[in-house]
Every structure is written in C-alpha cells, then in structure tokens.
Amino acid sequence: MEPQNKIRYLFVGLLFDAIGMASFIIPGIGEFSDIIWAPLAGWLMTRMYKGRIGQAAGVVTFIEELLPGMDVLPTFTIMWIYTYIFSRSRADKMIKSDHK
C-alpha cells in the first residue's frame, strides 16, 4: 500500500474514533447514539481492513461501541497500528529469515 493511503487510513481512523468518543459529550443521548454508531462502525472497519482480520476487528468494534463506557478505546487507531506497524515488522522479519 502506498504511504499516502497509509496516512489517509490513519486520519480516517482517528476521525472514526473521535466520532465514537463523541457520545461522552452529550449525557444521556450519547449512549443512545451508540445504538446507531455501533453497527456502522463495525461495518466501516470491515470496509477499511479486508479479510478475516477486518471481520474480527469489525465485531470487536461493534461490541466495544455497544458496551457503555467502552467508547474510550480507539479501536480504529489500534487496528491501524496493528496493520501498519506490528504486522509489517513481523512480515519483514519473516522475509529476512527466509533469505538467510
């Protein structure tokens, strides 16, 4: 993936995490908005990250958004870090060990 797309995914993820956390701003109404945001956030996660890992992240995001008080977890940002930092470094190590 091109570096521009990587940065775009980071900013989109930060925006989606901010939207999810915004329910804390409006007491009472905020938790109701999670009923609408939870399935949308789960679906958006599966669109951003394909395959099994995206599906698993979508389910985790859906559950995290539905549970009261859990909105503080930045699941989109965590997924970005996992995808572009941890998975990349692990894949790089595997490639380097194959070429020894």
**Helicity range of the residues?**
over 70%
Major pleated sheet: none
Radius of gyration (Å): 16 Å
**N→C terminal distance:** 26 Å
Mean pLDDT: 83
Tally of helical runs: 4
The count of DSSP E runs of length 2 or more, i.e. the number of strands, is: 0
Question: What is the H-and-E element order?
Answer: HHHH
Structural class: mainly alpha
General form: globular
How much of the sequence is in beta strands? under 5%
How would you portray this structure in words?
With 100 residues, the protein is mainly α. The protein has one domain (3-89). The chain is 79% helix and 0% strand. α1 (3-21) packs antiparallel against α2 and α2 (29-48) runs antiparallel to α3. The longest helix has 24 residues, at 75-98. It is globular and about 40 Å long. The protein starts with a helix and ends with a helix. Mean pLDDT is 83; it is low at 93-100.
